[in-house]
Specification:
Blueprint (H helix, E strand, L loop, with lengths): L6 H25 L4 H27 L5 H21 L6 H18 L6 H28 L4 H27 L12 H38 L9 H15 L5 E8 L2 H8 L1 H15 L8 E6 L2 E7 L3 H16 L2 E4 L2 E4 L2 E7 L7 H17 L5 E3 L7
Parallel strand pairs: 6-7
Antiparallel strand pairs: 1-3, 1-6, 2-3, 4-5
Helix pairs in contact: 1-2, 1-7, 2-3, 3-4, 3-5, 4-5, 5-6, 6-7, 9-10
Length: 392
Amino acid sequence: MLPAADPVSLIAALVVLFGIAAVVWLMIAAGLRESPGACACLSGANAALGASFLLHEALGLVSPQHYWWSDLLSLIAFALIRLAVPVVGERPAPWRSVGGATIAVGIVVARFTDGPDTLGHKLLIYGAMAALAMLAAVDAWRLLRARGLAPRAALALAAPLMAVGLLLLARPVEALLAPGRTADIDVASDFNIAWLWASLVLALLINGWIAFLLLMKLVLEIRRLTERDPLTDALNRRALSEAVDAEHSRQMRGHGYALVLLDMDRFKQLNDTLGHAAGDAALKALVRVLRPCLREVDRLARLGGEEFCVLLPHTGIAGAALVAERMRALLAGYAFAWEGQAWTLTASFGIAESSAADVSAAEVLRRADQALYRAKAQGRNVVQAVELEPAR
């Protein structure tokens, strides 16, 4: 049994809820500065939905033939929700396509339908809003998957937006299956009472869900900052150490790995000649040049200064040598210049592979460091490896 309520009271509750949510999202956008564009969209969406329900009741008393103004506000609200999700993920929002579709639907509803009670009107308005909600759900799923969530977890978190889309489709479906039974949302009927209660619950759920999405994004950003070198965006020493230790634990199960140490050649001379800003630019360029050489499972980290390390899981000494040689050639062929002055970037590489005899990853790193020392001694811009001694 649904709690006793009348449609007008539920509509009033929705107006209050949307009004409060609009103010809260506006405060978040202005105060916390976290995804201000997305927060502004959500503030506008809640304000438009609240105004839509309020205007709907006012027009019911004054001018019923102008209900399309109320419906247009609802359509604009869902267009803003559709735009907010990609903005949360810092991706381009489809402003033109969403705006154009919203305007087109609004014009058709205003000029070519026979009023809010008709099936065509409900199909256009609620169908368009449902489509926008579903597209927002797809965007949310993609965003969560890009953040590393498993498909099922991403689907579960995108479910509230899908539920909103299904709820919106329920109105034209009900009008199609039972024409004339429910004229409008403020008519007292079991369907309207259920629909408005569901709208109230989902309004709370959607606003809470997007707040959770923003919080998760903030947490992931903080985590990224604790794992990344602030200058180059490569992993930092601590994050690499954790990754190497995890990979070394797999060594006991027969999964070997290799480490590639590299040190930029004549980096002090570059700083002294072109300045420290040029040195910073060179380090960022090195990371940018080397990243295409790596697989998704590989890890590139800055150990400090001009020294970097690459972790290559499931890789032996021969495979690591191929990767290191490709890196060396790409870096040496990169055209680096600072304020019009060209400078050749090169690096020396030392590689080593893990062995079942290694007590810890520190032993692999020590051998890679020995190989790097040899590369420097041989004139730089070369790749050297420390071969494992055959077992006796």
